[in-house]
Amino acid sequence: MDLKNRLNKNLNKITVSAIRLFDQEVSTIPGIQKLTLGEPNFFTPDHVKQAAIKSIQDNQNHYTHNAGLIELRQAIADFYQEKYALKFRAEDEILTTVGVTEAISTVIYSIIEANDQILIPAPAYPGYGAPILLNGGEIVEIDTRSEGFLLTPYLLDNTLKNSPRAKALILNYPSNPTGASYSREQLAQLAKVISQYNIFVIADEVYSELSYSLEGHHSIAEFIPEQTIILNGLSKSHAMTGWRIGYILAQRELISEFTKTHQYLVTAASTTSQYAALEALRNGKDDPNVMKKAYIERRDFLVKSLKTLNFQVINPAGAFYIFAKIPEFVSLNSHDFLLDFAKKKSFAFIPGSAFGKFGEGYVRISYASSMEVIKSAMSALDDYLKEYLN
């Protein structure tokens, strides 16, 4: 009996993430050193780990409320009030999720129907596409390469005018893969356009605490709260990728609906991880600063090194990625170029093609790695390009 043809036909539209596929492809290379994944090379702060241990010792090992511990939701509300001057009620405007990945799926499954159009500034993180396609939606990519990887009001308005079935815009800032972000004024201008259309804004702010601007991070929810759905979490800010804690902030009417989807996907986030997140938000507000200082140093070194090697680079405003244009003298596509580099020099980056058609011709380098590894990688890239030219 062949049941494969009984599966959801939309599964044919998606594949495993090209980021993961390339990472797996190069993992078999002897001695490979990878600057591929968005995995901080820092450890979760000790006080956060101790809080998790205490929760286990105190037998806090049962289900929490579907939306998460009320204490954690209050800590999230306090955090957003203190850091970004945004008010959310802990009891009904915050939903704790299993990482931002589940937050993405929960929101998309809750709002997208067949043939709905979802606008995404590109190049973009590929994790948004799969749940959209599985739900029968259509992805509308907006090419931002000529604008320094930033969505402009003109680009947005023009795209919306030509997308009659648009239901949502996904805005990720600081961005994976480009590190680009928006000033308060830029967000205000985008919000003016969005307010003229009956659409949601899914604001993925998971890198908000890794914003390098002196102005700091701002949320578009400051201008259009009734249209904005904020996604955030602890993975990047507190080096807690494996703890899998994210959260959604939105109007009460939306959170009540998202909770239905969330409940049937996962029931609730891990109780132990929630207690760890509670400690991180209550007593670890400054934890990201040490990491951010190191990331800025690494970023600056990479930007200077890559420009010396004839890559075109836009200085990232946040996150921990460089998205650099491959020199014109390289004739290979981004996948083949980096696979050849990995095989010959035992260092790996992610090809830009992993981030959609507008990412081809670029490489993404994660500098969530040690400076020692980064320096060695740049030296190896220098040697490789010299050999390539000869």
TrEMBL record:
Keywords: Aminotransferase, Pyridoxal phosphate, Transferase. One of its GO terms (biological process) is amino acid metabolic process. InterPro entries: Aminotransferase_I/II_large, AspAT/PAT-like, NHTrfase_class1_PyrdxlP-BS, PyrdxlP-dep_Trfase, PyrdxlP-dep_Trfase_major, PyrdxlP-dep_Trfase_small. Its EC number is 2.6.1.-. The keyword Cell division does not apply. Residues 34-381 form the Aminotransferase class I/classII large domain. Pfam families: Aminotran_1_2 (PF00155). Its cofactor is pyridoxal 5'-phosphate. One of its GO terms (molecular function) is transaminase activity. Belongs to the class-I pyridoxal-phosphate-dependent aminotransferase family. NCBIfam families: PRK07309.1 (NF005588). This is Aminotransferase.
